[in-house]
Hints:
Mean pLDDT: 91
Number of strands: 4
Radius of gyration: 21 Å
Order of helices and strands: HHHHHHEHEEEH
Structural class: alpha+beta
Oligomer: single chain
CATH topology of the largest domain: Peroxidase, domain 1
Largest sheet: 4 strands, mixed
CATH architecture of the largest domain: Orthogonal Bundle
Helix content: 55-70%
Number of helices: 8
Distance between the termini: 42 Å
Strand order of the largest sheet: 2-1-3-4
Low-confidence stretches: none
CATH superfamily of the largest domain: N-terminal domain of the delta subunit of the F1F0-ATP synthase
Number of domains: 2
CATH class of the largest domain: Mainly Alpha
Shape: elongated
Amino acid sequence: MIIGVIAQRYAKALMKLAVAADQIEPVTEGLDTVADALAESERLADFLAEPKISLPAKEQAVTDLLAAAQVPTLVATFVRFVTGKRRILLLGEIRTVFHRLADERMGRAHAEVVVAAPLSADQESRLKERLERLSGKQITLQVQVEPEILGGAITRIGSTVWDGSLRGRLDQVRQTIIEG
């Protein structure tokens, strides 16, 4: 719980800086680059997590990573800052929160849709358009096929869920019959 709060504070601070510099997209991409590099290199993550290794050695490793990644100056400065605060291993969580904040600011949302059978390109396009009208946001659609829902769809945008599945409807009918 406390780690989430810390990541949120850092992400909000970075967002304020990105907004002030009008660099939300470049910062998002740069943050992704560095966080991906840390996630992909178990050796580097272990090195940065090791308490016996001095902070200057860790800072040098991060500087080398940043030089190779060629990220915007704002991202490089931020990553050096969190390294100095011994919070570099929270970069993945900071990135997740930053993405959510960037999506809110840019009017974007992610929709997860579960369907019983694969959708055609036309069906997917119509679904995306309808969700964009419903939410008022630009939607990135992620479709997952799960035959056990029998038919229809279950859609999640943020914390809102619409269950239009046949399985869900059957469960509602069963519950109504049980309750009398």
